[in-house]
Amino acid sequence: MPKPAITNPDFFGFYELLSESERNELAEIREYLEREVKPLANRAWDTSEFPFEVVEKFAKLRLASYQFPEHGDGVKRSPLFTGFLSLELNRIDPSLAVFSGVHTGLAMGSIYHGGDQAQRDRWIPDMVEMNRIGAFALTEPEGGSDVAGGMRTTARKDGDEWVLNGSKRWIGNGTFADLVVVWARDEADGNVKGFVVEKGTPGFTATKIEGKIALRTVQNADITLTDVRVPEANRLQQVNSFRDTAKVLAMTRGGVAWQALGVAVRAYELAREYAVERVQFGKPIGGFQMIQDLLVKMLGNITAMFGVVVRLNELVAQGSGSAEQAALAKAFTTTKMREVVAWARELFGGNGIVLDYEVAKFFADAEAVYSFEGSREMNTLIVGKAITGLSAFA
Hints:
- This protein is of the alpha+beta class.
- It has three domains: 14-128, Butyryl-Coa Dehydrogenase, subunit A, domain 1; 134-240, Beta Barrel (Butyryl-CoA Dehydrogenase, subunit A, domain 2), CATH 2.40.110.10; 243-388, Butyryl-CoA Dehydrogenase, subunit A, domain 3 (Up-down Bundle).
- It is built from eleven helices and nine strands.
- Strand 4 (179-186) and strand 5 form a beta hairpin.
- Helix 3 (79-92) runs antiparallel to helix 4 (94-114), helix 3 (79-92) crosses helix 7 and helix 7 runs antiparallel to helix 10.
- It is globular, with a radius of gyration of 21 Å.
């Protein structure tokens, strides 16, 4: 009698490294996401509109509290748990996962690590409850990978206030965020500093970027700052240079590696399900050698990705994870993800380009995940410098 098919993409059992309570909690989260969030995802992606009802649903899950337990339920989760949580969110919908990641990782992370205690107490409790949504404004129209050295947005001290001028681009949540962490170069000392710009501040405008083919639900904005005045109390007090910004990016870069894994996992799940259900030439296409070759290559990539991200989180838990390791994880997993989604779309044939079968969304969204939080080339140069001791940055 043949063995039953192995449907789990976690072929080597990495989930078993979690505690039983963490596995149970993730199972509950997955069930909730499948029931409450997934039905919203494809419609929102198709219309390029943000489903604001998801904010209440994410708040109910207390997603924003996991990395900041002292402001949440007080229960400290392992870094491995937060990695698997990212996998689950991206498995449901990468756009909605980006909304959550920008809010909790980039915006809250900047305030938590870059602000003083008064600033944390002032903003983070509301952000944990998702009563106030955050955004992170770093990238500029003329500065993506080179924004560290080429930042044109400026900050000028004027008494007890700062005056911000410049432009930002690709700012997730930017059209509706209540708090936007804006990075600007101090005209006095040339160093990059962080500022929390609150919704309604005069001189701040955000315009939605239209025509995207990936992460269509994410409300990316072009932001213009014209003599925007913020008080000294809104300057992140622990940020003194771009190195402090880079610490936040290094923290979230490992999260993008998990995001890539979640995208790949879902593409594989969809492809495997389709392969055993789709009948051609009198039998399921999963019974053909070339289809099985595609599935095995996909599973091999996913297994390798699991190994990288799980080990990275173990190192983070030990306090020894480095920016270079996070860079390698991001570059490697997003490259392997790109292969997986392409093979999955190929397996679906013509059905792979319509939203009805869902794989088209993951195929398109993978392109954005591949590009943001440092391109493959930039992360490659970070790792290349680490292993040679020589900088190849232009």
